[in-house]
Amino acid sequence: MATITATITVSLTTPTRRSLTNSVNLRYLLFNSHSKFATLQRSFKSHKTRIAVSSSLSIDVPVKTAPPSFLDRIDTTFLHFAKYHGLGNDFVLIDNRDIIEPKISPEKAVQLCDRNFGVGADGVIFVLPGFNGTDYTMRIFNSDGSEPEMCGNGVRCFVKFVCQLENLHGRHSFTIHTGAGLIVPEILEDGNVRVDMGEPILKASDVPTKLPPNKDHAVVKSELDVDGIMWNVTCVSMGNPHCVTFSGKGFENLFVDELKLAEIGPNFEHHEMFPARTNTEFVQVLSDSHLKIRVWERGAGETLACGTGACATVVAAVLEGCAERNCTVDLPGGPLQIEWREKDNHVYMTGSAELVYYGSLPL
Protein backbone atom coordinates (compact mmCIF):
# COMPACT_ATOMS: atom_id res chain seq x y z
CA MET A 1 0.00 0.00 0.00
CA ALA A 2 1.15 3.59 -0.58
CA THR A 3 -0.03 7.15 -0.31
CA ILE A 4 -0.16 9.29 -3.44
CA THR A 5 -0.54 13.04 -3.26
CA ALA A 6 -1.76 14.74 -6.42
CA THR A 7 -1.62 18.50 -6.91
CA ILE A 8 -3.50 19.65 -9.98
CA THR A 9 -3.61 23.24 -11.23
CA VAL A 10 -6.33 23.65 -13.82
CA SER A 11 -8.76 26.07 -15.43
CA LEU A 12 -11.93 24.26 -16.40
CA THR A 13 -15.66 24.76 -16.72
CA THR A 14 -17.80 24.55 -13.58
CA PRO A 15 -19.12 20.98 -14.18
CA THR A 16 -15.60 19.79 -14.78
CA ARG A 17 -14.38 21.43 -11.59
CA ARG A 18 -17.08 19.65 -9.59
CA SER A 19 -16.16 16.23 -10.97
CA LEU A 20 -12.47 16.89 -10.48
CA THR A 21 -12.90 17.58 -6.76
CA ASN A 22 -14.33 14.09 -6.28
CA SER A 23 -11.70 11.99 -8.05
CA VAL A 24 -8.26 12.00 -9.59
CA ASN A 25 -7.82 10.36 -12.96
CA LEU A 26 -5.44 7.50 -12.28
CA ARG A 27 -4.52 7.18 -15.96
CA TYR A 28 -1.88 9.84 -15.37
CA LEU A 29 0.07 7.81 -12.78
CA LEU A 30 3.80 7.83 -13.43
CA PHE A 31 6.20 5.12 -12.29
CA ASN A 32 9.87 5.72 -11.63
CA SER A 33 12.67 3.14 -11.91
CA HIS A 34 12.78 2.43 -8.13
CA SER A 35 9.14 1.83 -7.29
CA LYS A 36 5.88 0.92 -8.92
CA PHE A 37 4.37 4.03 -7.41
CA ALA A 38 5.16 7.69 -7.98
CA THR A 39 3.97 11.17 -7.20
CA LEU A 40 1.71 12.55 -9.85
CA GLN A 41 1.72 16.22 -10.59
CA ARG A 42 -0.07 17.71 -13.55
CA SER A 43 -0.55 21.38 -14.31
CA PHE A 44 -3.20 22.72 -16.68
CA LYS A 45 -2.99 26.45 -17.37
CA SER A 46 -5.64 28.97 -18.36
CA HIS A 47 -6.08 32.66 -18.70
CA LYS A 48 -8.65 32.86 -15.86
CA THR A 49 -8.92 30.49 -12.91
CA ARG A 50 -6.35 28.41 -11.05
CA ILE A 51 -7.54 25.87 -8.46
CA ALA A 52 -5.71 23.34 -6.35
CA VAL A 53 -7.09 19.95 -5.44
CA SER A 54 -5.42 17.55 -3.03
CA SER A 55 -6.33 13.94 -2.67
CA SER A 56 -4.85 11.32 -0.39
CA LEU A 57 -5.48 7.84 -1.75
CA SER A 58 -4.45 4.40 -0.62
CA ILE A 59 -4.19 2.27 -3.73
CA ASP A 60 -2.29 -0.71 -5.04
CA VAL A 61 -1.78 -0.49 -8.82
CA PRO A 62 -0.40 -3.60 -10.55
CA VAL A 63 2.24 -3.11 -13.20
CA LYS A 64 1.01 -4.44 -16.55
CA THR A 65 3.12 -5.26 -19.58
CA ALA A 66 1.28 -4.58 -22.83
CA PRO A 67 1.50 -7.33 -25.44
CA PRO A 68 3.61 -6.37 -28.49
CA SER A 69 1.64 -4.73 -31.28
CA PHE A 70 2.15 -5.37 -34.98
CA LEU A 71 4.15 -2.13 -35.08
CA ASP A 72 6.77 -3.72 -32.84
CA ARG A 73 7.17 -6.51 -35.39
CA ILE A 74 7.00 -4.34 -38.51
CA ASP A 75 10.70 -4.57 -39.35
CA THR A 76 10.73 -8.35 -39.55
CA THR A 77 7.29 -9.21 -40.90
CA PHE A 78 6.62 -6.31 -43.25
CA LEU A 79 8.15 -5.43 -46.61
CA HIS A 80 8.93 -1.73 -46.94
CA PHE A 81 8.85 -0.30 -50.45
CA ALA A 82 8.63 2.87 -52.51
CA LYS A 83 6.46 3.33 -55.59
CA TYR A 84 8.03 5.30 -58.46
CA HIS A 85 7.13 5.92 -62.07
CA GLY A 86 9.03 7.00 -65.15
CA LEU A 87 6.50 8.58 -67.52
CA GLY A 88 3.80 6.28 -66.15
CA ASN A 89 5.95 3.13 -66.37
CA ASP A 90 5.59 2.28 -62.68
CA PHE A 91 7.64 0.15 -60.30
CA VAL A 92 7.84 -1.10 -56.74
CA LEU A 93 11.34 -0.28 -55.44
CA ILE A 94 12.83 -2.37 -52.62
CA ASP A 95 15.94 -1.58 -50.56
CA ASN A 96 17.95 -4.80 -50.90
CA ARG A 97 21.40 -3.43 -50.04
CA ASP A 98 21.92 -5.78 -47.09
CA ILE A 99 21.75 -9.07 -49.04
CA ILE A 100 22.75 -10.17 -52.54
CA GLU A 101 19.52 -12.01 -53.44
CA PRO A 102 16.11 -10.34 -53.92
CA LYS A 103 14.04 -10.27 -50.75
CA ILE A 104 10.95 -11.62 -52.49
CA SER A 105 10.35 -14.32 -55.08
CA PRO A 106 9.15 -13.78 -58.66
CA GLU A 107 5.79 -15.23 -57.56
CA LYS A 108 5.47 -12.61 -54.82
CA ALA A 109 6.44 -9.93 -57.34
CA VAL A 110 3.53 -11.00 -59.55
CA GLN A 111 1.20 -10.51 -56.56
CA LEU A 112 2.63 -7.07 -55.80
CA CYS A 113 2.24 -5.97 -59.42
CA ASP A 114 -1.43 -6.97 -59.58
CA ARG A 115 -3.44 -3.77 -59.98
CA ASN A 116 -6.51 -5.14 -58.22
CA PHE A 117 -5.09 -7.32 -55.46
CA GLY A 118 -1.62 -5.83 -54.97
CA VAL A 119 0.22 -2.53 -55.15
CA GLY A 120 -0.01 -2.35 -58.92
CA ALA A 121 3.11 -1.95 -61.05
CA ASP A 122 4.86 -2.94 -64.27
CA GLY A 123 7.69 -4.51 -62.27
CA VAL A 124 9.54 -4.84 -58.96
CA ILE A 125 13.07 -3.43 -58.78
CA PHE A 126 15.70 -4.35 -56.18
CA VAL A 127 18.62 -2.15 -55.08
CA LEU A 128 21.35 -4.72 -54.38
CA PRO A 129 25.01 -4.39 -53.36
CA GLY A 130 27.47 -3.51 -56.12
CA PHE A 131 29.34 -6.11 -58.13
CA ASN A 132 32.91 -5.96 -59.48
CA GLY A 133 33.46 -2.45 -58.18
CA THR A 134 30.11 -0.91 -59.17
CA ASP A 135 28.12 1.19 -56.73
CA TYR A 136 24.96 -0.94 -56.90
CA THR A 137 23.36 -3.87 -58.66
CA MET A 138 19.90 -3.61 -60.21
CA ARG A 139 17.57 -6.56 -60.69
CA ILE A 140 13.97 -6.46 -61.81
CA PHE A 141 11.05 -8.88 -61.94
CA ASN A 142 8.38 -8.10 -64.53
CA SER A 143 4.68 -8.18 -63.70
CA ASP A 144 4.55 -11.74 -65.10
CA GLY A 145 7.45 -12.90 -62.89
CA SER A 146 10.04 -13.01 -65.68
CA GLU A 147 13.39 -11.25 -65.21
CA PRO A 148 14.58 -8.88 -67.95
CA GLU A 149 18.19 -7.85 -68.38
CA MET A 150 17.43 -4.25 -67.41
CA CYS A 151 14.87 -1.47 -67.83
CA GLY A 152 15.48 2.09 -69.01
CA ASN A 153 12.63 3.79 -67.16
CA GLY A 154 13.32 1.53 -64.20
CA VAL A 155 16.96 2.57 -63.93
CA ARG A 156 15.91 6.23 -63.66
CA CYS A 157 13.54 5.32 -60.84
CA PHE A 158 16.31 3.20 -59.31
CA VAL A 159 18.66 6.18 -59.12
CA LYS A 160 16.06 8.49 -57.60
CA PHE A 161 15.33 5.83 -54.97
CA VAL A 162 19.06 5.46 -54.20
CA CYS A 163 19.29 9.21 -53.60
CA GLN A 164 16.42 8.94 -51.13
CA LEU A 165 18.07 6.00 -49.36
CA GLU A 166 21.44 7.74 -49.15
CA ASN A 167 19.99 11.21 -48.49
CA LEU A 168 21.83 12.65 -51.49
CA HIS A 169 21.06 16.02 -53.05
CA GLY A 170 22.21 17.80 -56.18
CA ARG A 171 24.07 16.29 -59.11
CA HIS A 172 25.31 12.70 -58.73
CA SER A 173 26.34 9.85 -61.01
CA PHE A 174 26.47 6.13 -60.27
CA THR A 175 27.75 2.89 -61.73
CA ILE A 176 25.07 0.22 -61.88
CA HIS A 177 25.62 -3.47 -62.60
CA THR A 178 22.71 -4.96 -64.58
CA GLY A 179 22.00 -8.05 -66.61
CA ALA A 180 22.74 -5.89 -69.67
CA GLY A 181 26.15 -4.85 -68.34
CA LEU A 182 27.36 -1.57 -66.87
CA ILE A 183 24.87 1.33 -66.85
CA VAL A 184 25.94 4.85 -65.79
CA PRO A 185 23.06 7.17 -64.80
CA GLU A 186 23.44 10.76 -63.65
CA ILE A 187 20.96 13.00 -61.84
CA LEU A 188 21.00 16.48 -63.39
CA GLU A 189 20.45 19.87 -61.77
CA ASP A 190 16.83 19.99 -62.95
CA GLY A 191 16.03 16.63 -61.32
CA ASN A 192 15.89 14.68 -64.57
CA VAL A 193 18.08 11.62 -65.04
CA ARG A 194 20.46 11.13 -67.97
CA VAL A 195 21.55 7.54 -68.50
CA ASP A 196 24.47 6.31 -70.58
CA MET A 197 22.84 3.19 -71.96
CA GLY A 198 26.01 1.98 -73.68
CA GLU A 199 26.35 0.80 -77.27
CA PRO A 200 23.41 -0.71 -79.14
CA ILE A 201 23.80 -4.35 -80.18
CA LEU A 202 22.96 -4.87 -83.84
CA LYS A 203 24.37 -8.29 -84.71
CA ALA A 204 21.32 -10.45 -85.38
CA SER A 205 22.46 -13.48 -83.39
CA ASP A 206 23.21 -11.28 -80.36
CA VAL A 207 19.88 -9.42 -80.32
CA PRO A 208 18.81 -12.29 -80.59
CA THR A 209 16.72 -12.90 -83.68
CA LYS A 210 16.55 -15.73 -86.18
CA LEU A 211 15.80 -13.29 -89.00
CA PRO A 212 18.65 -13.38 -91.52
CA PRO A 213 20.90 -10.29 -91.40
CA ASN A 214 20.73 -8.02 -94.41
CA LYS A 215 23.07 -5.14 -93.50
CA ASP A 216 26.48 -5.63 -91.84
CA HIS A 217 25.28 -8.62 -89.76
CA ALA A 218 22.21 -6.59 -88.69
CA VAL A 219 18.50 -6.88 -89.47
CA VAL A 220 17.41 -3.54 -90.94
CA LYS A 221 13.98 -2.99 -92.50
CA SER A 222 13.54 -6.71 -93.02
CA GLU A 223 10.18 -8.33 -93.72
CA LEU A 224 8.46 -10.23 -90.91
CA ASP A 225 5.21 -12.11 -91.39
CA VAL A 226 3.01 -11.74 -88.31
CA ASP A 227 -0.30 -13.55 -88.67
CA GLY A 228 -0.45 -12.93 -92.42
CA ILE A 229 0.57 -9.26 -92.27
CA MET A 230 4.00 -8.34 -93.59
CA TRP A 231 5.81 -5.81 -91.39
CA ASN A 232 9.14 -4.09 -92.00
CA VAL A 233 11.26 -4.50 -88.87
CA THR A 234 14.67 -3.49 -87.56
CA CYS A 235 16.11 -5.48 -84.67
CA VAL A 236 18.16 -3.80 -81.91
CA SER A 237 19.29 -4.86 -78.47
CA MET A 238 19.85 -2.35 -75.69
CA GLY A 239 20.83 -5.22 -73.43
CA ASN A 240 17.32 -6.55 -74.04
CA PRO A 241 15.79 -7.43 -77.42
CA HIS A 242 13.70 -4.99 -79.47
CA CYS A 243 11.84 -5.27 -82.74
CA VAL A 244 11.11 -1.82 -84.20
CA THR A 245 8.63 -1.21 -87.00
CA PHE A 246 7.77 1.95 -88.92
CA SER A 247 5.77 0.44 -91.78
CA GLY A 248 4.53 -2.68 -93.49
CA LYS A 249 3.30 -3.96 -96.81
CA GLY A 250 0.45 -1.70 -97.92
CA PHE A 251 1.09 1.01 -95.29
CA GLU A 252 4.16 3.20 -95.46
CA ASN A 253 3.36 5.25 -92.38
CA LEU A 254 1.93 4.06 -89.07
CA PHE A 255 -0.68 5.95 -87.09
CA VAL A 256 0.10 4.40 -83.75
CA ASP A 257 -3.04 5.57 -81.96
CA GLU A 258 -5.12 3.45 -84.32
CA LEU A 259 -3.31 0.18 -83.57
CA LYS A 260 -5.04 -2.56 -81.58
CA LEU A 261 -1.91 -3.29 -79.61
CA ALA A 262 -3.45 -5.85 -77.26
CA GLU A 263 -4.13 -8.05 -80.29
CA ILE A 264 -0.94 -7.36 -82.24
CA GLY A 265 1.66 -7.13 -79.49
CA PRO A 266 1.60 -10.71 -78.19
CA ASN A 267 2.09 -12.06 -81.71
CA PHE A 268 5.34 -10.13 -82.00
CA GLU A 269 6.51 -10.95 -78.48
CA HIS A 270 6.15 -14.70 -78.95
CA HIS A 271 7.09 -14.89 -82.64
CA GLU A 272 9.34 -17.83 -83.50
CA MET A 273 11.94 -15.43 -84.92
CA PHE A 274 12.67 -14.17 -81.41
CA PRO A 275 14.02 -17.03 -79.27
CA ALA A 276 14.19 -14.84 -76.11
CA ARG A 277 10.85 -13.18 -76.97
CA THR A 278 11.00 -9.48 -77.82
CA ASN A 279 9.84 -5.98 -76.96
CA THR A 280 8.15 -4.30 -79.91
CA GLU A 281 8.03 -0.61 -80.81
CA PHE A 282 5.45 0.73 -83.26
CA VAL A 283 6.70 4.09 -84.55
CA GLN A 284 5.10 7.10 -86.18
CA VAL A 285 7.57 9.59 -87.69
CA LEU A 286 6.47 13.17 -86.97
CA SER A 287 9.72 14.74 -88.19
CA ASP A 288 13.38 13.82 -88.50
CA SER A 289 13.85 14.75 -84.82
CA HIS A 290 10.45 13.83 -83.40
CA LEU A 291 9.05 10.31 -83.13
CA LYS A 292 5.89 8.93 -81.54
CA ILE A 293 5.74 5.33 -80.34
CA ARG A 294 3.65 2.75 -78.57
CA VAL A 295 5.39 -0.20 -76.95
CA TRP A 296 4.48 -3.79 -76.27
CA GLU A 297 6.88 -4.89 -73.54
CA ARG A 298 8.07 -8.44 -73.13
CA GLY A 299 6.62 -9.73 -69.87
CA ALA A 300 4.52 -6.64 -69.11
CA GLY A 301 2.27 -5.94 -72.12
CA GLU A 302 1.55 -2.42 -73.28
CA THR A 303 3.11 0.16 -70.98
CA LEU A 304 2.95 3.94 -70.90
CA ALA A 305 6.69 4.21 -71.53
CA CYS A 306 9.77 2.11 -72.22
CA GLY A 307 13.22 3.65 -71.94
CA THR A 308 15.16 0.95 -73.74
CA GLY A 309 12.41 0.91 -76.37
CA ALA A 310 12.81 4.63 -77.01
CA CYS A 311 16.58 4.12 -77.35
CA ALA A 312 16.15 1.21 -79.76
CA THR A 313 13.66 3.26 -81.77
CA VAL A 314 16.11 6.11 -82.41
CA VAL A 315 18.85 3.65 -83.38
CA ALA A 316 16.46 1.92 -85.80
CA ALA A 317 15.27 5.25 -87.19
CA VAL A 318 18.85 6.30 -87.96
CA LEU A 319 19.60 2.93 -89.57
CA GLU A 320 16.49 3.21 -91.75
CA GLY A 321 17.30 6.80 -92.67
CA CYS A 322 14.15 8.41 -91.30
CA ALA A 323 15.49 10.36 -88.29
CA GLU A 324 18.53 12.14 -86.89
CA ARG A 325 20.68 10.92 -84.00
CA ASN A 326 19.09 13.26 -81.45
CA CYS A 327 15.33 12.90 -81.13
CA THR A 328 12.40 13.60 -78.88
CA VAL A 329 10.44 10.38 -78.49
CA ASP A 330 6.81 10.77 -77.44
CA LEU A 331 5.39 7.86 -75.46
CA PRO A 332 1.87 7.66 -74.00
CA GLY A 333 3.29 8.66 -70.60
CA GLY A 334 5.38 11.59 -71.86
CA PRO A 335 8.58 12.45 -73.79
CA LEU A 336 12.14 11.17 -73.57
CA GLN A 337 15.18 12.78 -75.16
CA ILE A 338 17.34 10.17 -76.90
CA GLU A 339 20.75 10.73 -78.46
CA TRP A 340 22.85 8.14 -80.29
CA ARG A 341 26.24 9.83 -80.24
CA GLU A 342 28.43 9.18 -83.19
CA LYS A 343 31.71 9.90 -81.36
CA ASP A 344 31.38 7.06 -78.83
CA ASN A 345 28.51 5.00 -80.32
CA HIS A 346 26.68 5.21 -76.97
CA VAL A 347 22.98 5.92 -76.57
CA TYR A 348 21.97 8.52 -73.98
CA MET A 349 18.49 8.72 -72.51
CA THR A 350 17.21 11.73 -70.53
CA GLY A 351 13.89 11.83 -68.72
CA SER A 352 12.06 12.13 -65.44
CA ALA A 353 11.40 9.74 -62.56
CA GLU A 354 8.95 10.55 -59.79
CA LEU A 355 8.15 9.22 -56.34
CA VAL A 356 4.52 8.20 -55.91
CA TYR A 357 4.48 7.01 -52.27
CA TYR A 358 6.11 4.85 -49.60
CA GLY A 359 4.40 1.82 -48.13
CA SER A 360 4.67 -1.42 -46.17
CA LEU A 361 3.08 -4.79 -46.82
CA PRO A 362 3.01 -8.03 -44.78
CA LEU A 363 5.36 -10.65 -46.15
TrEMBL record:
Localization: Plastid, Chloroplast
Known catalytic reactions: (2S,6S)-2,6-diaminopimelate = meso-2,6-diaminopimelate
Major location category of this protein: plastid
Enzyme kind, highest EC tier: isomerase
PROSITE patterns hit by this protein: DAP_EPIMERASE
GO CC field: chloroplast; cytosol
Keywords: Amino-acid biosynthesis, Isomerase, Lysine biosynthesis
BP terms from Gene Ontology: lysine biosynthetic process via diaminopimelate
TM region(s), chain numbering: none
Cross-referenced Gene3D superfamilies: Diaminopimelate Epimerase, Chain A, domain 1 (3.10.310.10)
EC id: 5.1.1.7
Similarity section: Belongs to the diaminopimelate epimerase family.
Protein name according to UniProt: diaminopimelate epimerase
Lineage: Eukaryota, Viridiplantae, Streptophyta, Embryophyta, Tracheophyta
